[in-house]
Design goal:
It contains 17 helices and two strands. It has 424 residues and is an all-alpha fold. The protein has one domain. It has a two-stranded antiparallel sheet. The chain is extended. The two termini are 52 Å apart.
Length: 424
């Protein structure tokens, strides 16, 4: 009687579980969309355009008075949220929204890559992270200086501060172009980091035996014993030494193979193209801020049919970059015209020189560096196997895996899976 009853209970509970999963998914999507919307609003509000006025003008220009009282509307919305939600839920949602950029970069993207099981995406992400942290100090200083100068131009009306900030932005932009130009001819720090990491791991796994058995590894005399003649402590030491050497050998060859596939797909070219697009966007935004600063210092340096907004200067800078003009903002004074010509020169330099260099010289250099890294990984993997032969009297890596299967099935299974991938 109990079995039919259990079956009925399972049939009843399954729809509830499905509904619960669906509800959780809907809540997660709503939270994600809310976080994205808020951060997009903040970005547009701070750096592009007063979106509040834009929305009011679309809905009804007569409602502009609401903008003056938006703080009180916000307080009222928050009060309603407090009323209808639990404290724990409100705290989780608030923290999620506040830290969403970090959650997206350091959690959602890695989880997405793990689910897709894409090694190419993983290597692309690792390259980006290594590149970021290899020059973190100078990048932080430059980024902080850029943001401070940009904010001063956007919020201040003091001419000396505006002029000083404009000079800082020009210096930063020039430095960025010069640094990028030089980096085309310099070895990439990314693959050097990989080499240092595997060199460090190689030193760790190759622990030489000592004359006494008191260390973490077997002595020379103990290594002469067969596994059957070893006691439990000796077997543990033998297993630890062999499994790490075997695992290091398999990982080196596995990473070498995946990097070769990564190279064949030409992700480095995609990375270079993305880099060019970042420089295009960076140049357009920088000159938009510079021109906006010139306008705030003296609005007579430009001619315009109606008072321009910051978004108009972004549009103006975008067209300048494309060697085009717009009627909304026209450079009239020499300083504005020189700035316009300077942006065109930066655009010409980027398009004519960077593209040819990034897609030819840099691609060739990175190909050579990847080949060196692959060769280095193969050499280190073979050294680990040779170390097994010399110190543990094991003929090859297959014998090591067979021996480990008797004492540590978990590690042995991992080694066999990696080996199957290498042979596929």
């Amino acid at each position: 009687m109990s079995q039919p009853q259990d079956s009925v209970n399972q049939q009843i509970s399954q729809p509830h579980k499905r509904k619960s999963k669906t509800a959780s998914l809907i809540i997660s999507v709503i939270r994600e969309l809310l976080a994205i919307t808020i951060w997009i609003y903040v970005f547009i509000k701070l750096f592009i355009y007063d979106i509040d006025i834009f929305v009011i003008n679309i809905l009804s220009p007569n409602l502009k008075w609401i903008i003056n009282y938006k703080f009180f509307f916000l307080i009222g919305i928050i009060a309603i949220i407090f009323l209808i939600t639990k404290n724990r839920t409100l705290l989780i949602w608030s923290l999620y929204i506040v830290f969403y950029p970090f959650i997206f970069l350091f959690w959602e993207i890695p989880v997405f890559i793990f689910r897709k099981k894409s090694w190419n995406l993983l290597f692309a992400l690792l390259d980006s992270i290594v590149s970021l942290f290899s020059s973190f100090k100078i990048s932080f200083i430059v980024t902080a200086s850029f943001l401070i100068a940009a904010i001063v131009i956007l919020v201040s009306n003091i001419s000396i501060l505006l002029l000083f900030s404009i000079i800082i932005l020009i210096i930063i932009l020039s430095w960025a172009y010069i640094h990028k130009f030089i980096s085309v001819f310099r070895p990439s720090g990314v693959y050097q980091v990989y080499t240092r990491i595997f060199s460090f791991l190689s030193d760790i796994v190759k622990i030489k035996p000592t004359d006494s058995g008191t260390s973490a590894v077997l002595s020379e005399e103990e290594l002469k014993l067969s596994i059957e003649d070893m006691d439990e402590k000796q077997i543990q030491k033998w297993t630890t030494g062999v499994q790490w050497l075997a695992l290091f050998n398999r990982v080196c060859l596995f990473v070498a193979k995946k990097i070769r596939l990564y190279q064949e797909i030409n992700f480095n070219i995609i990375s270079s193209i993305i880099g060019i697009m970042k420089y295009i966007l960076f140049t357009i935004i920088t000159f938009a801020i510079i021109n906006y600063g010139l306008y705030k210092i003296d609005n007579n340096v430009f001619s315009y049919p109606s008072e321009p907004t910051f978004f108009n200067f972004i549009y103006y800078s975008f067209n300048n970059f494309l060697f085009n003009t717009i009627p909304e903002v026209v450079a009239r004074a020499p300083i504005a015209q020189v700035t316009s010509m300077t942006e065109s020169l930066f655009a010409l330099f980027l398009v004519a020189i960077f593209i040819s260099l990034l897609l030819s010289i840099k691609n060739q250099r990175e190909t050579e560096e990847i080949n060196k890294l692959i060769e280095y990984l193969k050499i280190e993997g073979n050294k680990a196997e040779g170390y097994l032969k010399d110190h543990y009297r094991i003929s090859d890596i297959n014998e090591a895996m067979q021996s480990l299967q008797k004492v540590n099935l978990f590690i042995a299974n991992i080694l066999y899976r990696i080996t199957d991938t290498l042979n596929s």
